[in-house]
Design brief:
Elements lengths: L1 H12 L7 H32 L10 H7 L5 H14 L3 H9 L4 H10 L4 H7 L4 H14 L2 H15 L13 E6 L5 E6 L2 H17 L9 H19 L14 E3 L1 H5 L8 E3 L4 E2 L1 H8 L27 H11 L14 E5 L15 E5 H7 L4 E4 L9 E4 L14
Antiparallel strand pairs: 1-2, 3-4, 4-5, 6-7, 8-9
């Protein structure tokens, strides 16, 4: 691995201005092929680690969690690596082409998406030669445009179920939401025909109910506003399932000084899912909201109830959620509504107080891990992003970040 890093360092040191056009294109081809080979090795490594349960070494359940929490892959990208490894176990030709750099990770992803759990066994039961599809897919991936591979994979799906019962529509439904650095976001959904019809009907009803005179919004903007209105109406109805003892609601945290100061600027308020917004936007939200006062000190609402209560009361939980933001176990970013409030010094064994200082947010899995050998500690003098430290049962610390050389 050190030799590989040295080779990349040497590449980065090259002066590209000294290369002619043809040399730049050759360099691009070689780097692309090498990236494919490295992606193949990543998939192979992650698959083996998943099989042997290596993620448990750092207190995580799956390699998908490791890729998200330790290596900062998006949920979709992490899932794609894991799916690719599972699919390639049954496709030796495609696996070999991937390892040679002739096939991209995106192409392997198309095949992996089409080869669903149980398909290999179903193909064997029906006498369908998966080896022939492996050969065909590999040839298409090597020689034809990217879009052609999806058609070839669909041929397998048609052969697997030419005229069988309708598939379970829930297996075709996916929704991915990506948050951008400024707190805005984008998303993608894949729905079956009936599911899409239901969503389209609701969105269209919202669009048609809001068509003011002189509306200059384009169709996409109208549908975006309709989606938010749908969320507004659903939240206002109050019929949604509870999130950790409270009804789901929009949370915005802002200092009192910024809330009442008309000139407060950008990035002074934080939403419940971690976006940073301006105090002006927070004031706009507060116009139609209940305002909860949380005082981080001794002069207002008490944040320490000592030994009188073991169960964390709501006002302390709100304070812990504001401070921690998500599960504090290394590599985990489970949202606050997935988390328990853990006593750092145990209430019974260690005589620990029920207080903000003695509390930490932990998701259910990592709360269990901490009670079975793992340990989280808090360094109050460290910067906020480095406050929490996690140790394995053997005492070694779980470190998040690139390998040090």
């Amino acid at each position: 691995m050190s030799e590989l890093r040295s080779a990349v360092d040497a590449l980065a040191a090259d002066d590209l201005h000294e290369l002619r056009d043809g040399q730049l294109l050759d360099r691009t081809a070689e780097i692309s092929q090498t990236i494919n080979r490295l992606q193949a090795e990543l998939v192979r490594t992650v698959r083996h680690a998943d099989v042997v349960g290596a993620a448990e070494h750092d207190g995580l359940r799956t390699m998908q969690s490791v890729l998200r929490g330790h290596h900062h892959l998006s949920p979709g990208a992490a899932a794609a690596v894991v799916r690719a490894g599972r699919a390639l176990e049954h496709l030796p030709r495609l696996e070999s082409a991937f390892a040679d750099g002739a096939v991209t990770a995106a192409q392997v992803g198309i095949v992996a998406d089409g080869l669903r759990p149980g398909d290999v066994a179903a193909a064997e039961e029906q006498g369908i030669d998966l080896d022939a599809f492996d050969e065909a897919w590999t040839e298409v991936a090597r020689t034809l445009p990217h879009a052609k591979l999806g058609t070839a994979v669909q041929a397998f799906r048609n052969a697997l179920d030419p005229d069988g019962p309708e598939p379970d529509p829930t297996e075709q439904r996916r929704l991915t939401i990506t948050r951008h650095h400024d707190g805005s976001g984008s998303g993608r959904f894949d729905l079956d025909a009936v599911g899409l019809e239901k969503v389209a009907a609701v969105i269209e009803s919202m669009v048609q109910a809001d068509r003011p005179r002189g509306d200059l919004r384009n169709r996409a903007q109208q549908q975006g506003d309709a989606l938010v209105q749908w969320a507004d109406n659903t939240l206002a109805a109050g019929a949604l399932p509870f999130l950790r003892t409270v009804k789901p609601h929009v949370v915005v945290t802002v200092d009192l000084e910024d809330l009442v100061d008309p000139v407060a600027g950008h990035d002074t308020a934080t939403t419940g899912f971690g976006a940073r917004i301006s105090a002006a936007r927070a004031r706009w939200v507060a116009c139609d909201s209940a305002v909860t006062r949380i005082v981080m000190g001794p002069d207002g609402l008490p944040l320490d109830v000592g030994r009188t209560k073991r169960v964390v009361p709501p006002h302390i939980r709100r304070a812990v959620e504001q401070r921690d933001g998500h599960c504090v176990f290394a590599g985990c970013h489970a949202p606050t509504h997935w988390c328990d409030v853990h006593h750092l010094a145990e209430w019974v064994l260690d005589q620990g107080d029920t207080s903000l200082d003695n509390s930490a947010l932990l998701c259910e899995r990592h709360h269990t891990k901490v009670h079975h050998g793992f340990r989280v500690t808090k360094d109050d003098d460290a910067p906020p992003g480095q406050r929490w430290r996690t140790h394995r049962p053997d005492g070694t610390e779980i470190i998040i970040g690139p390998l040090l050389t």
